[in-house]
Amino acid sequence: MRRQILCLMAAALLLISGCSKKDPNQISTEKMQLYTAYYKSIMDMDRFQEKSDFYDIEVVMNQLPDGTYRYYVILDNPQVAMVDVEMLVVDAAVDYLQTSVIAPSVGLLENEDYSLIPNQVYPELGYVKGLMASGETSSPTISLNVMVLWKDYAKLKETREYLQLTGDFVNQSATPEAEPQTEGAHDDLPIEDEDDSE
């Protein structure tokens, strides 16, 4: 049952997902500066939460045909109004400032605003059921540092949380179904809109 729920949730979140396949050359300077500032704030943080009182967040992993793993950080079930949500996911083993790889994010590098309001889902207005960011790793276990930032409904107060999550493919409670194989690597996986240049 849990496997079916996770698969349905992953399918429902495909349109609002983030990933590390963003082309740094197509991202505005302002957004890259914000990305860099958020990344540095995560790296400077020394106190992380394991969970939030305001939403549910979990890591789900799939093994890919080439033996590597794709992880999904799923944020859903908001307990409060969360407006203009931004999420940045950092693999603790990767120094993103020293590589051309962009850390998975949602609401940060694309030209869309996402809000989560309890019991309200209106995707055409930006009110979504949940958010998902994904990335790849060669290890079946992964330590992720996640920053989630949002504003209250009136956009007067901003809240920022830092979480430390662990993904463990071998010991996760329900093994997700294998991802479908398609021609050409993994082009069918959830990715952000790559035409965000300004």
Describe the 3D structure.
- This protein is of the alpha+beta class and 198 residues long.
- The N and C termini lie far apart (43 Å).
- The protein has helices spanning 2-12, 29-44, and strands at residues 17-19, 56-63, 69-76, 83-91, 105-106, 130-137, 141-151, 158-168.
- The strands form two sheets. It has a four-stranded mixed sheet with strand order 1-6-3-2, with helices on one face. The protein has a four-stranded antiparallel sheet with strand order 5-4-7-8, with helices on one face.
- It has one domain (2-168).
- This is DUF5067 domain-containing protein.
Layout of secondary structure:
Blueprint lengths: L1 H11 L4 E3 L9 H16 L11 E8 L5 E8 L6 E9 L13 E2 L23 E8 L3 E11 L6 E11 L30
Task: Briefly summarize what is shown.
This protein has helices at residues 2-12, 29-44, and strands at residues 17-19, 56-63, 69-76, 83-91, 105-106, 130-137, 141-151, 158-168. The protein has 198 residues and is an alpha+beta fold.
List keywords for this structure.
4-stranded mixed sheet, signal, 8 strands, 4-stranded antiparallel sheet, DUF5067 domain-containing protein
Biggest sheet record? 4 strands, mixed
Strand segment count: 8
Cα-atom radius of gyration: 16 Å
The oligomeric status of these chains comes to single chain
Structural class: alpha+beta
Distance between the termini: 43 Å
Shape designation: globular
Continuous helix count: 2
Tell me the strand order in the biggest sheet. 1-6-3-2
Structural domain count? 1
Helix percent reads 10-25%
Instruction: State which percent range the strand residues make up.
Output: 25-35%
**SSE pattern:** HEHEEEEEEE
Overall average residue pLDDT: 81
